[in-house]
Amino acid sequence: MPAAFSNRLVERLKTARRVVVLTGAGVSAESGVPTFRDKDGLWDKFSPAELANFDAFMKNPELVWEWYHWRQTVIKDVRPNPGHVALAELEAWLTRKDHSFYLVTQNVDGLHRRAGSKCILELHGNILRNKCSVCNFKTDAIDLQLSEKLPTCPDCGKLLRPDVVWFGEMLPEFELGRAMEVASACDVCLSVGTSAVVYPAAFVPVNARNAGAYVAEINPEPSAISHTVDEVILGKSGEVLPHLVTAVTKAS
Length: 252
Ligand code: BV8
Ligand code: ZN
What we know:
alpha/beta, six-stranded parallel sheet, 11 helices, 38% helix, binds ligand BV8
């Protein structure tokens, strides 16, 4: 039985005109995509310092490409789970009522879009896109058969890299600005499947709370912001979200 959420949250979502949801790797866990900081997560085997920053890439592009290529192959084989689908259904229900919904995600796996979500702000980029490490060239990460030769830019010949935001790199300006803006103006904010330790993404629920929104967290264990939110629902997003969205959207 999924963790219980309060009637207060259901009522708040039923009457909300502006809803913002922040998601992290936990939302994709039930699709089979490893999270970062869980036991046997991505950072268990590799250190972020070695892999998710530009200097590491320039120092050892083979290692970084090997890691991202493995992640791209994992992501190509997985499907959205009921948690992703429930968020797309909530968005459609709110949109039909002319209410606003923003899905701010830290995830780079593209599963929200594949589940049918439309209004998505990808704060950390998308692993299924590559970009040039020097010029503005971008491309879909086609079936990149990693050979000894690493992928290079057709325009300037420099190394291609995954189109994701690494530590120490600025987040995409439009997405970050919009995310902070809608977080500060929403009625309800859900923080789902994130340890909330990475900034500035973790500011989203903080800004919402500071602006007076009702903030609820859905996560199987406490996160870095659990002590600041109005409601903590300890459970898996793939189980809690479908029940929550059904309770909100069913005709009352
Ligand atoms: C930047 C690469 C300017 C992409 C990643 C304050 C302001 C600004 C910056 C900082 C700041 N303080 C510190 C910084 C620097 C740094 C930072 O935040 N460091 C932290 C770690 C201390 N931030 C940056 O560098 C950002 N850049 O701001 O530039 C700047 C730079 C330096 C200093 C000042 C300013 C760039 C951040 C992006 C980094 N890129 N990855 C990739 O390869 O994917 S971070 C990595 O962590 C991923 O992107 C991921 O999105 C992100 C967050 O992780 P989560 O998604 O939360 O995943 P995690 O595994 O941690 O947690 C999963 C959760 O799910 C768990 O709680 C688990 O319990 C739960 N779960 C498990 N199963 C389920 C579940 N939940 C629901 N259902 C389930 N079934
Ligand atoms: Zn280039």
